[in-house]
């Protein structure tokens, strides 16, 4: 006779296990979808676009007609930083995700602080080059008499050195504040350590808050100057190319500001929200989705400089077209020389065969 009591107990046990299986909410499923989309499929697209666009921008800005302009140097420096960030940080992050490997800063104890220091110096130099571009255009519009003295290639190189030296000073604290832990490379904050808390906000101010505020202020000033002074008509003696790149600088700074601001706001929220929010699972999931989206929105800034120059600068389009035409003409000339050379060699061989006795 079958044991009905044990079979009914098994049925009840299976039913209870099914009832207590964790259910994935719609917000969590959306988060998983965004992680796959942003971390697997988006990085190679950004790397390809950024590589082509930034390389073309660098080649155009280094041409004879533009290489002596201070604004061209800033745009070139921004494009170079974007290339380094795309390959050194986004590329390694994508490879680690694809092959399910540890990130570079998790490979060894000494790599954790060194990698964090290098990443901060390189990544935050981009926003300061945007600020330098804005100040350069501000001088062109509001102080045209000082343009020839302040907006020179020498001053642009000097400003670049100041930017990197300042970021090294601000970021050097990463060498002793970051440690490799079980869950990754993070800052170590001892209890009641006021120095760590203060220095974190000081670094964040120089990394994001101050340059974003400067970008906003100079955006307003440059836009006002363009509307009121019309520098393209009133200052014909100034550098024509530099004036035309004013629109490019204004558009680049606006897009940069809009794409970086969400990540900055979410960073402030994550460092200031009350501990009670962690009990709300739905809210934590929504914050994770917003953080992931804002993170890759900021990465778009590494690909925009070519499109800003192309759409907002006629000078850039002309120089780009001339460069491409010269490359095509050079290639065709090379092919023509090879063809004519082979034909002449063939004719000479035929004539030798006709005149040389057997």
From TrEMBL:
Single annotated GO MF: G protein-coupled receptor activity
One Pfam family from the record: 7tm_1
Key words of the record: Membrane, Transmembrane, Transmembrane helix
Annotated transmembrane regions: 36-59, 71-90, 121-142, 154-178, 198-223, 244-269, 296-313
Listed PROSITE patterns: G_PROTEIN_RECEP_F1_2
Cell compartment(s), UniProt: Membrane
Top-level taxon: Eukaryota
GO cellular component: membrane
UniProt cross-references to InterPro entries, sorted A to Z: GPCR-Ligand_Int, GPCR_Rhodpsn, GPCR_Rhodpsn_7TM
Major location (coarse): membrane
Domain G-protein coupled receptors family 1 profile: from-to ranges: 53-309
Entry protein name: G-protein coupled receptors family 1 profile domain-containing protein
Organism listed in the record: Magallana gigas
């Amino acid at each position: 006779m079958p044991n009905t009591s044990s079979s009914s107990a098994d049925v009840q046990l299976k039913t209870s296990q099914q009832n207590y299986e964790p259910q994935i909410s719609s917000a969590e499923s959306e988060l998983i979808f965004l992680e796959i989309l942003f971390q697997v499929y988006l990085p190679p697209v950004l790397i390809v676009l950024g590589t082509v666009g930034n390389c073309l921008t660098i080649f155009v800005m280094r041409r004879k007609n533009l290489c002596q302009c201070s604004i061209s140097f800033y745009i070139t420096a921004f494009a170079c930083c974007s290339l380094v960030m795309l390959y050194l940080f986004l590329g390694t992050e994508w490879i680690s995700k694809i092959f399910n490997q540890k990130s570079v800063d998790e490979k060894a104890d000494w790599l954790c602080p060194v990698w964090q220091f290098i990443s901060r110096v390189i990544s935050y130099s981009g926003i300061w080059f945007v600020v330098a571009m804005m100040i350069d255009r501000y001088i062109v519009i509001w102080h045209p008499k000082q343009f020839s003295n302040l907006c020179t290639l020498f001053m642009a190189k000097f400003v670049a050195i100041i930017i990197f030296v300042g970021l090294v000073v601000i970021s050097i604290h990463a060498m002793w504040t970051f440690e490799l832990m079980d869950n990754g490379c993070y800052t170590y904050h001892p209890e009641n350590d006021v120095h760590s808390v203060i220095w974190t906000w000081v670094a964040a101010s120089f990394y994001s808050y101050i340059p974003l505020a400067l970008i906003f202020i100079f955006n307003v000033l440059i836009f006002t100057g363009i509307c009121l002074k019309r520098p393209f008509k009133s200052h014909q003696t100034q550098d024509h190319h530099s004036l035309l790149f004013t629109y490019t600088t204004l558009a680049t700074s606006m897009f940069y500001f809009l794409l970086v601001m969400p990540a900055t706001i979410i960073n402030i929220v994550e460092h200031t929200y009350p501990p009670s929010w962690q009990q709300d699972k739905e809210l934590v999931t929504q914050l994770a989705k917003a953080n992931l989206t804002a993170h890759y929105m900021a990465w778009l800034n590494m690909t925009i400089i070519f499109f800003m120059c192309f759409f907002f600068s006629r000078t850039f389009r002309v120089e780009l077209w001339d460069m491409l035409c010269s490359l095509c003409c050079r290639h065709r000339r090379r092919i023509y020389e090879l063809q004519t050379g082979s034909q002449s060699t063939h004719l000479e061989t035929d004539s030798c065969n006709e005149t040389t006795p057997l």
